[in-house]
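Marked as duplicate of an earlier ticket. Keeping the data here for the record.
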Amino acid sequence: MSAADPRRALITGAAGGIGRVLVEVFDAAGFEVIATDSTPRPEGLACAHYVCADLSRLVSDEVYADGVIAAIRDRLQGNGLHALVNNAAIQVLGGTDSLSRKDWRITLDVNLLAPFFLTQALLQDLSATSGSVVNIGSIHARLTKKGFVAYATSKAALAGMTRALAVDLGPRIRVNAIEPAAVETEMLKAGFSMKPERYQQLKGFHPQQRIGHPREVARLALAMVNGGIDFLHGACVGLDGGIGS
């Protein structure tokens, strides 16, 4: 990879705790990063380009979607896309008695359908580089708890879609997923701000006796894309400190 011809990566959900670190790690590895989120560009985000994109609207509004894809392609300048990291997600909590149609719609739009439609829309750009898609899933695809019905279902479907896309698209591009357990972000810590004993309990549930770090997710994503392990295809890799066992 030369400075004159960097690899290019598109990372969604770049304003979040994991997203910011994904951008930082890919940028440090020499990628020209195109970052997206639904908010204005966060200060200090280490990306070459930023595209504001509402992924729920991208799914429901084809004209809007065409505009977002055109903005991304404008940044690519015909050079192809080496990595698409579908990191953006929404977590709507609620049980069977309370989930609304709106809850389901936005959960499936952002967590499942947006990764598909971005992959579909950018397939030509990814194929031009024999590129790689990394879907950031969740341990909830396999193991969940009360109140996570919509979120867990969307992540289980994302895992299934990862495998199906790998079969459908290989060897044109590679498609894999990372399924983390609890990851130490500001959002997670804020949720336990009034319950520090519960936070310590959560750490103890993991055989590693700690919670994961965003940088570990980012390093694994980079390795999947850039680590010389091209036989890794259709894999949903647990990054869970052993709790899945």
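See parent ticket for discussion. The chain has a mean pLDDT of 95.
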